[in-house]
Amino acid sequence: MKEPFFFTHPGRGLAAWIVITFVWWQPHPDEPRWIMPLLFFAALFLMPFSHALQRGASVTMTRDAKLEVFCAFMLVLSFAQDKVAWAVALTLPWLVWRAWWAMSSVQTLRHVQWTAGDLALASAGVFPVIGALWLTLHQTNRPLFGFDPLIVLLTAAHFHHAGFTLPLMAGLNAKATPNGLTKFSCVAILLGVPLVAMGITCTHFGVMPFVEPFGVTVLVLGAVGVAVSQIQRGLEKERKALARLGFVVSGVSLLAAMLLALGFGLRYLIPNLALTMPQMWAIHGTLNVFGFGLCGILAWRSVKR
After folding, report:
1. Distance (Å, rounded) from C-alpha 297 to C-alpha 300?
2. Residue 18: exposure state from Cβ atoms within 10 A (0-12, 13-18, ≥19)
3. Integer angstrom CA distances of residue 122 from 44, 109, 147, 163, 164
4. What is the DSSP string of 195-226?
5. Contact at 8 Å (CB) between 196 and 215?
6. How many angstroms separate the CA atoms of 68 and 93, rounded?
7. Do 91 and 75 touch, CB atoms closer than 8 A?
8. I want to staple 71 with a disulfide (CB 3.0 to 4.6 A). Which of 6, 93, 183, 219 is the partner?
């Protein structure tokens, strides 16, 4: 007999996220507090829910999902602490977990052919550890190389979403349909995710100002390729209606979100195209998390069964 969804470990993570977000956190889109539920959603639900897409379903994956949800819950609790020592300590299980998952993701490359799709899927397990490290540094409550704490938090969110769902779905598309578009998307995303982070750092220190717009452009080009691939899958008539809808919503959401990202990345060159930062995390962030990430993972899980 199939286990009810909310009795699974990802289901429990989702239930915890709902209570945390709407009962305790109660964020408003205009406030930086909006960023945290988006980040928590990846840790508590999207990541454990996508284990079968990353590695395949097994008893080990069930155990791993249980550990991941526990570590994610410790991460959430760190943001309820007044004492810095406790706040930092409670992020460490998540950091250790992401480090272990990153190492095991790299090890999977020993058993594959190192195609663009293989590399993208592995990077979906590697990039989030950078975000986990930035979360730990954020909780120290000390300036990190002069960065505003908000920028540190946004960088952590970048690696938990752009560093996770983008390479994950780029890799899935490349493995399912290995053509020029899907391979290009993988390469552009593998380069674009770290380039954007480097660009933000360069802009902060006032050096090489071209890196950020270049990195954003590369990432957007890769993301557009993923969006097109997702929409194409949604137009395949042999798929179930809900799966098709999920693919189309995922692709359209990503396309809209990344056009906003391009405008923001080019803000110093074409200021009129850019939204404000609060508008970016409210619109771009929400589209990426729920429109692209959630709908895309649901669609891929439905066709992988």
Report:
1. 5
2. middle
3. 20, 7, 29, 11, 10
4. HHHHHHHHHHHTS-TTHHHHHHHHHHHHHHHH
5. yes
6. 9
7. yes
8. 93
Q: Which of 133, 154, 147, 157 is nearest to 205 (CA)?
A: 147
CB 213 within 8 A of CB 268: yes
Tokens of 228: 């097109």
Let me know: does 49 contact 300? Beta carbons within 8 Å: no
Locus of tokens 């915890």: 16
Task: Give the C-alpha separation, 195 to 101, whole Å.
Answer: 22
pLDDT tens-digit profile of 40-50? 999 999 999 99
> Which token pair is 78?
């760190």
Whole-number Å distance between alpha carbons of 305 and 300: 9
Adjacent-strand bridge partners of 121:
none
Locate 101 and state its tokens.
Answer: 């998952």
Q: Tell if the pTM clears 0.70, that is, is over it.
A: yes
Distance between CA atoms of residues 66 and 73, nearest Å: 11
| Bridge partners (DSSP) listed for residue 144 | 147
Q: How far is Cα 100 from Cα 115, in angstroms, rounded to an integer?
A: 23
Query: What are the DSSP E strand ranges found in 182-289?
Result: none
The residue type of 176 is A
Q: Which residue has the tokens 């409210």?
A: 282
For residues 230 and 251, the answer to whether their CB atoms sit within 8 Å is yes
Cα 230 versus chain centre, distance: 17
207-244 pLDDT, tens digit each: 888 888 899 899 999 999 999 999 999 999 888 999 99
Q: Which residue has the tokens 């945390």?
A: 20
